[in-house]
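Deliverable D5.2: sample structural annotation.
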Amino acid sequence: MTTRKEFLLKSGLLATGAVLLPSLTFAQKKAEQNLGVQLYTFRDEMLADARGTLEKIAALGIKQIETARSAKGLYYGLGPKEMKEVCKSLGMTLRSGHIALDENWANTLDQASESGQEYLICSSLPTNGQTVDNYKAVAEAFNKAGEDCKKRGIKFGYHNHEYEFESHNGEVLYEVLLNNSQADLVHMELDLGWVVVAGKDPLDYFKRYKGRFPLWHLKDMDMEKKESTEFGKGGLNIPQMLAHKKDSGLEYIFIEQEEYANSPFQSMAHNMKYMKRF
């Protein structure tokens, strides 16, 4: 026989569960909505069959898409508006794209405007030279690009590799870039994998440059080979990174994996399953 105390306790727990479960479900769904992929992960597949590959990507539960330049252009042979509509029809959003800051910049802006994407991310340093002066010049070029994008309702940003964390004259070059670019015009996409390979701590940057990293490339790294691997198999402490995402100013995570144990689809299925823990 159930006592009144036992009844009240069970009722209280059930009531608490009724309140908490929808909240947890909402939080989980919100996290999933912010989870995307950098299409360089599927570079060969996108060139061979862009629509079919996007269908398979959507089936993995991915919601945000970031493109990369390809032999068939910025959208793998599809038009900017066509790319947007295909993604939308599959329940995904064309959110961002990797581009070059080069002589085709005006055309890149036109295509981005037509696609409706939110971010344009410069994928590599536009000029060579691992010097403080060069990084200051690049920061100015980024500020100008940020102004151009802002006029179009687009956000400009930069994606790092390992080499930006080298030093020149006692200064870390990536920090020169951060210190000389305007936070409201240049939005950093931090590739966490390359940061740890460079021997730096992403959390240190979250703390010192709070809110400067709205985009992440989430990439676990084999620290010996210096190449990407499936989540949980490398040297990036992913749970720790996610615990500090607010300091980063995080809006969207783009998973990128450049090397795979078997196939990009198998690796991405593993990565998506791993992310459901958080």
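Annotation notes: Residues 1-27 have pLDDT under 50 and may be disordered. The CA atoms of residues 215 and 236 lie 17 Å apart.
The annotation will be released with the project's public dataset once the embargo ends.
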